[in-house]
Specification:
heterodimer, A: TIM Barrel, eight-stranded parallel β-barrel, 10 helices, 35% helix, B: alpha/beta, Rossmann fold, eight-stranded mixed beta sheet, three-stranded mixed beta sheet, 6 helices
Chain lengths: 259, 206
Amino acid sequence: MLTKRIIACLDVHAGRVVKGVQFVDLVDAGDPATQASRHAREGADEIVLLDITATHEGRQTLLDTVRRTARELFVPFCVGGGIRSARDAEQVFEAGADKVSINSAALADPSLISAIGSSFGAQAVVVAIDARRDPEAADPVRDAQVFVHGGRKPVGRRVVEWAREAEERGAGEILLTSMDADGTRAGFDCELTAAVSEAVGIPVIASGGAGTVAHFADVFGRGKADAALAASIFHFGVSTSRSLKEELAQAGVPVRLPC
Amino acid sequence: MRVTVIDYKAGNLTSVLKTLRHLGAETVVTDGDLSLVEAAERIVLPGVGHFAATERLDATGMTGAIRAAIARGVPFLGICVGMQWLYAGSTEAPQQAGLGQFPESCTRFAESTEKVPHVGWNSLEVRNGSRLLAGVEPGEFVYFTHSYKGPVTADTAAVTNYIEPFAAAVERGNVMGVQFHPEKSGETGLKILRNFLAWQAKGAAC
């Protein structure tokens, strides 16, 4: 049976894992290669490394980090943050990533999705979407406003239509972050996740709002998510992938339990 | 041991090469030098992407060289599209012939309420006698990402169920294929690749 994926997300700044609330008051949380291996050992189904440096000078550091992290990692490995061109993506793949996650650059130039996909396959392209419900829209959920990552102003796209366009252009997966839920630890936005998941034929990874194991069970059930991103729930020692998955299995969610 | 990895410009070889090296193999990559295929001790054909990309194997003459290597008894492992290429063909690119080691064709998952592509970790039901999958316990998980698959036949070494049962692995003598990505399948995947690297013809001197 196909299982629901738990994806461990590492925010990386200048070659180190950092944790902090919405990129403020960053605290050093270790070496990315060590952390990624540990998560894989504990049962994470996939690792996402999100570079929050995103400066030109930081790219070489990032590539070194990707190379070191990939060396001993034998589960799918996705890298996001600051990928602006097919050439950027190629360098990240050559360093050992299996997938890239693109957000702002795809919004600025949607043809980037197919440009990367045609060389590396659709399975290698994850389109990340940051969305906030729009109370003024006819359908506040399906028409949630899309933002560039970390942005304050909506870009004028609606979440369902943008997710569909991304799929048509050859995205392999959608990484959907609810900006309403992000940082609250009060649960994923299951309505938003379900709206996107039902609108596309590719997997949807839910992100933002996880605080308890029950939140994961909820987004896999009601939210129809194929995978869920776990970040701060691990950082703050709430849970390891292993204990998270054991509890999900008890709740009847199909998961891969680590050996 | 040395492994010749075939590059047909469909996706990224980095993960496969890295994993084979991690397991102690020396890797040689060729995108058309037939002498490297002729001298191969073991061959891996990775692949993500579209079945049509295998046309490059015909254009470079590697199809014939691989066929000859297989006939010589060289252990061969196809991964993902590399496994599908072992069949007669695929409905993904009907004009493009596969190697035809297995007479069936690959087809797309049937329309259903489930999503296609099939992405994620799914379990293996290993058939008795598979040497490639020796030591893989019932229900161990591996990582898949694909929309086309081979049918379950007598040559199927493991079955996975998604929408319908399909061939997760195929094996006949020295010819082996896996639909999943062993290089991305954690300890289970490493075990399978170790089995491939240790594969010897029955009766061969160790």
